[in-house]
Amino acid sequence: MSGIVESAGTEPARQLPEGQGGVGLPEGNAAQYPTLRRALLDAALEVFTERGYTDAGLTEIAARSGIPVGSLFQHYGGKRGLYLALWEEFREEQERRTAATLAAERDRGVADPVALFMAGARAYLEGAWDNRRLGRLVAEDDSPAGFDALRRQWDRAWVRRNARLLEVDERQRAGRVRVSVLTTVIGGAARELGDCGDETEAREIVDEVCGILIHLTTPPSSSRTP
């Protein structure tokens, strides 16, 4: 999971493929949904983080949330639905953060594609630190069946959006590979941030990675000495 994301308004609304999200709420429960949802997702994150996805138990998640197991199934369809909802929450928060940063930079008159990309990269990495528990969870190999394919699908979409942000012609292999490398670097750094001991170390990593990205965003022809 990586990449800098343009505003969600630049593409059709994105959602989990049919059958991969949670189960809809019955009529009449909509007003209770935000509180119930938060309780279930917070409890799921705790149990997944402590025990891993495979060993996490729905009974324990329900007990910690204070919500019956039957309601958990009704709203999320089980453990897989909870996990995917957490991933969606992390991804959407990262998108909101980077989109807001890009909008603010453009309002200041910044138009250079590389400058915008770097601002978005820093925002994404800072978000990975702020949301490190969620980020660490979805970066682990212990995940629901089929999740890797879903994650790769979104990663490919993020690479395409990054290419547009950098104004790279995706028809040219060199440019496409460069954007893919940049996106991979950001994703790898985001995973490292999840294991940082404190904010000082996290900021050092963000600064270091941004320096690497600046170097990588320089076209080869621009760095050659005449």
From TrEMBL:
Chain intervals for the UniProt region annotation (Disordered): 1-28
Domain of life: Bacteria
Entries under InterPro entries matching the protein: Homeodomain-like_sf, HTH-type_TetR-like_transc_reg, HTH_TetR
Residue ranges flagged as DNA-binding region: 57-76
PROSITE patterns referenced in this protein's UniProt entry, alphabetically: HTH_TETR_2 (PS50977)
Keywords in alphabetical order: DNA-binding, Transcription, Transcription regulation
Keyword DNA-binding included in the entry's annotation: yes
Keyword Cell division belongs to the record: no
Residues covered by the HTH tetR-type domain: 34-94
PANTHER family: HTH-TYPE TRANSCRIPTIONAL REGULATOR BETI, HTH-TYPE TRANSCRIPTIONAL REGULATOR RUTR
Name this polypeptide is given: TetR/AcrR family transcriptional regulator
Source organism per UniProt: Streptomyces cinerochromogenes
